[in-house]
Write a structure and sequence with these properties.
Length: 277
C-alpha cells in the first residue's frame, strides 16, 4: 500500500505549503489502515462516518459526534462510510510556526507533558458546527482576504478549545512542539497484542520492513515474527488458565484474526489445544 503524504497531495497546485490550509475531504469507499505521512498538525472535524487512527503506541476511534486534533507523524488510519455510503470531514492544517505564535500570545507557562499523546479528542457542539459553516465561506473569498481571515479563524478555534478544555488542551498543544520520537521498543511493545502486521508496525516505527527486521533482531536477539507469536501465545495461556475465558473470547485481543489460526499456533507451541487448558 503506497504512503499518502498529507497535506501535500491536497495542495499540489501551490508552490509551497501554507502555514494554514483547509480542505474538505469526501469519499464514497471505505479505507482500512491507510499509511499516512502527516507533515503538519491537523484538525479532523468529522461530519459523517467513522475514523480510527493507529499511532506508535496507541489508537483512537471517533464518530460524527467527535473530532480529532492529530500530531504530525506516520500514522495508520481507517475511514468508514455511514449508512448513506458517505464519509466527510473538514481538515484544518497548521504549521508549528502558527502554533508557537498562538502559544506565545495566549499562554504564559511552558507546561510539560510527560505522557506524550499523538491526539486530542474534541466533542462536537453547536459552536463548532457554526465555526465549520463559517470556514466553508472562505473558499469563495479573494486569496489575500481568505488567508488573513483563516489566520483569524485559526486563532478563534484555538481560543475556544483552550477555554473549553483548559489546561488539558494547553498541555497537549505544548506537546505538539516536542521533537522527541517514540523509542523503537515502546512502539513494538505497545503493539504486541494488536492485529497489526509486521509491515504496519514497521511503518509506525518510520522504517521499511527490512530495516525494521534488522533493528528488531539487534534489539531482541530474535526474529520479530517468532518473538511476537511467543508473546501472544504466552498471554493466551495465562488468560485461559484463569478459567473464566474461552479461546473464542481471547483470540482477537491477542492479535489473531481468526480462531483457527490461533488454535493451530497454540497447539504447535504447547502441545495441546487451547480448549484443553
Amino acid at each position: 500500500m503506497p504512503i499518502e503524504n498529507i497535506p501535500e497531495i491536497y495542495i499540489q497546485d501551490k508552490k509551497e505549503s501554507p502555514d494554514l490550509f483547509v480542505y474538505d475531504f469526501k469519499m464514497t469507499n471505505d479505507v482500512v489502515k491507510s499509511k499516512v505521512n502527516l507533515s503538519m498538525n491537523m484538525f479532523s472535524f468529522l461530519q459523517v462516518g467513522k475514523k480510527q487512527v493507529h499511532f506508535a503506541d496507541t489508537s483512537v476511534a471517533v464518530n460524527k459526534d467527535q473530532s480529532l486534533l492529530l500530531k504530525k507523524g506516520n500514522w495508520l488510519w481507517t475511514e468508514l462510510l455511514d449508512k448513506e455510503a458517505i464519509y466527510y470531514c473538514k481538515l484544518l492544517f497548521f504549521s508549528e510556526e502558527k502554533l508557537l505564535e498562538f502559544l506565545k500570545k495566549h499562554t504564559k507557562n511552558t507546561l510539560l507533558n510527560k505522557d506524550e499523546i499523538a491526539y486530542f479528542v474534541i466533542e462536537n457542539d453547536t459552536y463548532i458546527s457554526s465555526y465549520l459553516n463559517s470556514l466553508s465561506t472562505l473558499s469563495n473569498a479573494p486569496s489575500s482576504f481568505s488567508e488573513n481571515l483563516l489566520s483569524i479563524k485559526f486563532e478563534e478555534i484555538m481560543l475556544y478549545l483552550l477555554n473549553k478544555y483548559g489546561e488539558n488542551f494547553e498541555i497537549y498543544l505544548q506537546s505538539l512542539i516536542s521533537k522527541e520520537v517514540s523509542p523503537f521498543k515502546k512502539t513494538v511493545e505497545s503493539n504486541v497484542y494488536s492485529n497489526l502486521k509486521l509491515g504496519e508496525i514497521a511503518f509506525l516505527c518510520n522504517m521499511s520492513l527490512s530495516t525494521f527486521k534488522r533493528h528488531f533482531t539487534s534489539e531482541y536477539n530474535e526474529a520479530p515474527g517468532k518473538w511476537l507469536q511467543d508473546k501472544r501465545l504466552q498471554k493466551a495461556m495465562e488468560l485461559l488458565q484463569e478459567g473464566s475465558l474461552k479461546p473464542s473470547d481471547i483470540y482477537l485481543d491477542i492479535g489473531y484474526n481468526n480462531l483457527s489460526n490461533f488454535s493451530t499456533a497454540f497447539k504447535n507451541k504447547f502441545g495441546k489445544s487451547p480448549k484443553d487448558i
